[in-house]
User: Which sequence fits this backbone?
């Protein structure tokens, strides 16, 4: 590499010891740049790789579990409308008890809630989806006023569920 004339003259004026110092400083700067640009990011990525690998493995396991659940649901035989209504009524009695009232009109079931616990509601929704093949199509829920019981917040409102076709 050819240096500009002014730099070349300045270099030639330096004593051999000063030239060595300048070369050592330039080598140190070059080494630092190589570290910051090439090696440090790669080492940082390598250090985080194990944690990221474990996280991705956990996500993969969750996806496999969900896939197996979806396939199991797909292989279940079709459910007659009357069976779905009976299963939904049973799940309301079992999970929600006196905190819910069910009414069925056409292919839609309306569940009116009054002080239903959040955990019971979540369990009921899962059971209704699996046992009665009922899916929520509308939800108008409000948190119940007053103190929160030990089981968590309670909900008031209306859930409209779509049932299997007749």
Assistant:
């Amino acid at each position: 590499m050819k240096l500009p004339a002014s730099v070349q003259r300045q270099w030639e004026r330096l004593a051999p010891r000063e030239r060595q110092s300048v070369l050592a400083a330039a080598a140190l700067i070059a080494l630092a740049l190589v570290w910051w640009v090439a090696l440090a990011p790669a080492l940082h990525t390598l250090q985080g790789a194990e944690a990221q690998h474990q996280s991705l493995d956990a996500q993969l396991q969750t996806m496999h579990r969900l896939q197996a659940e979806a396939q199991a649901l797909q292989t279940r035989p079709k459910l007659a409308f009357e069976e779905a209504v009976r299963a939904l009524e049973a799940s309301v009695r079992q999970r929600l008890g006196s905190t819910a009232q069910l009414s069925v009109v056409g292919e839609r079931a309306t569940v009116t809630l009054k002080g239903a616990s959040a955990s019971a509601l979540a369990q009921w929704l899962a059971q209704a989806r699996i046992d009665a093949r009922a899916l929520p199509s509308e939800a108008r829920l409000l948190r119940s006023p007053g103190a929160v019981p030990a089981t968590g917040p309670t909900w008031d409102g209306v859930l409209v569920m779509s049932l299997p076709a007749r």
Summary: The helical segments are 5-13, 16-75, 81-96, 118-131. DSSP finds four helices and four strands in the chain. The mean pLDDT is 90. The longest strand covers residues 108-117.
